[in-house]
């Protein structure tokens, strides 16, 4: 079977497509025929080991995972003798987890991995893209931001994979939502439910005063210091990207009344991710969350897919499809 691999850290050109034997599921595993996997800024960060901290998960000197790829959509091809949750032919989507392995024709997963059945109408590529954006956005909106009806939520980077789902979840939780993006994505933001759109090239959202209950920087381009005054007293600033300032703030709990938080959503327990994906399937079926797929690349263009993601200009998700 074909896999995407890398033997050293670096730019998109370090990616290689290789052939390896197809894995065989153990008694408590399922064998998934991967139809699509997502390519995200997180994948790029791990590929180039930037930030350095990724090396603590993926190998200090060189990448330790043979096969790349976290979020996937596919079909169960075979099941181990003790498997009860899935049957051959089930369409699934979800996250392979930190050991990776989704960028391949097949991957073996424990039956209690963070994958669930795919709802009707969600294709494999959409599932792979949504899995990443949602598993990041949901903990921020529900657990960290505790978004509730009547809250005013601002999302910076609202057109990205994480932001587009965060926007829809904030609306689902009953909030008034302001999306920050460039003008070319304004219509998409309104279509996803944004009440207000700020063109980031025309206006600086941080000049607002006492305006937002939650500011979620989905792309980590702002700072708590710059956003603090735009929060209402008691408001919270959330970011996906670690900085020394936010970590220092969280450790020292400065600035009572307005808080800043970073969350590491990728490190949540598999059981929590699986439960949340089951909720996502319901939200998709109910029409509360939909996938936004920017581009689909064939496997042979996986390098181009990484290059495109690194432009940081995509709207929603980029996926690689195995059959083209
Ligand atoms: N904390 C965690 O556990 C965790 C987990 C997963 C991912 N992450 C991180 O979370 C981030 C998620 O990003 P993503 O995947 O959603 O990104 P993405 O999809 O690549 O974001 C692309 C979008 O960013 C917008 N953008 C580009 N530059 C911007 C700027 N200077 N200010 C505001 N918006 C800008 C662009 O829209 P416009 O041009 O329209 O603005 C574009 O649509 C990544 O950095 C990833 O590493 C963290």
From TrEMBL:
Pfam families: ADH_N, ADH_zinc_N_2. GO terms for molecular function: oxidoreductase activity. Residues 10-320 form the Enoyl reductase (ER) domain. It comes from the Bacteria. PANTHER family: ZINC-TYPE ALCOHOL DEHYDROGENASE-LIKE PROTEIN C16A3.02C. This is NAD(P)-dependent alcohol dehydrogenase. It comes from Devosia ginsengisoli.
